[in-house]
Amino acid sequence: MIFHASPGVIDLGVNIDHIATLRNARGTTYPDPVQGALQAEEAGADLITLHLREDRRHIRDADVAALRPLLRTRMNLECAVTQEMLDIACRIGPQDVCLVPERRQEVTTEGGLDVAGNFERVQAACRQLADAGIRVSLFIDPDAAQLQAAQACGAPVVELHTGRYADAESPEETASELARIAHAVDEGVRLGLRVNAGHGLHYTNVQPIAALTGIHELNIGHAIVAHAVFAGWQNAVREMKAIMVAARLSALAVAGRPAG
Ligand SMILES: CC(=O)[C@@H](O)[C@H](O)COP(=O)(O)O
Ligand SMILES: NCC(=O)COP(=O)(O)O
């Protein structure tokens, strides 16, 4: 049975990368990210996100292929803008592909894709994916120039990188990063883009982001996997979804707008 806490209010994309990180740390076959994805769907995930890195440090090609026919929600495949990755994406055919920047030595995705600075390459990638029937999202910093470039590329979706907000070291910095994201959401909506967000979100910093009513979907992984160690995987997914929905419903009530 799939659990849905207020469907349509705000979507939770559960990122399963770090289930694979745990598996790969010991070269075992467990924990299985595919099992994690299916259980996350039962617990209320609206989609499953996974990042096939060029170095295959967590998710592997076999995970993506195994998961695609089993998912009951939708797959959001994150990958770099390389021909190898575009070809894999077109072969697997996920519902969504999110193009992300990658640096081999980084601990995690540091910053958004420079769409404005790599316009032709990103535009060609958007075309190849769209021709394969895949909805394209660009993982960008909350920046007006990047949003405009994303729209000009023909991407229907953007995911705003919330890492700087999550890593802010003072209340002032947190407030200023949140304001930056809020402005970017408004700009994205004005440009006709579907606006998603994610990176570094956890159980006590997600609320102000979920309250931004222009955001459709949040992709969250590391914090849910970490919380699952103590709470159990499905409880961790349910808890995150409930927090997001409560924050969104209360923002809608304050704005006097109906949910859904
Ligand atoms: C693009 C992105 O933000 C996610 O892929 C997330 O960061 C998890 O993957 P990494 O930890 O490998 O960056
Ligand atoms: N695109 C962001 C994502 O999928 C999850 O990032 P994180 O929660 O693992 O930092």
TrEMBL record:
Root EC class: transferase
Keyword Transferase in record: yes
Keywords: Transferase
EC numbers for this chain: 2.6.99.2
Official protein name in the record: Pyridoxine 5'-phosphate synthase
Species assigned in the record: Imbroritus primus
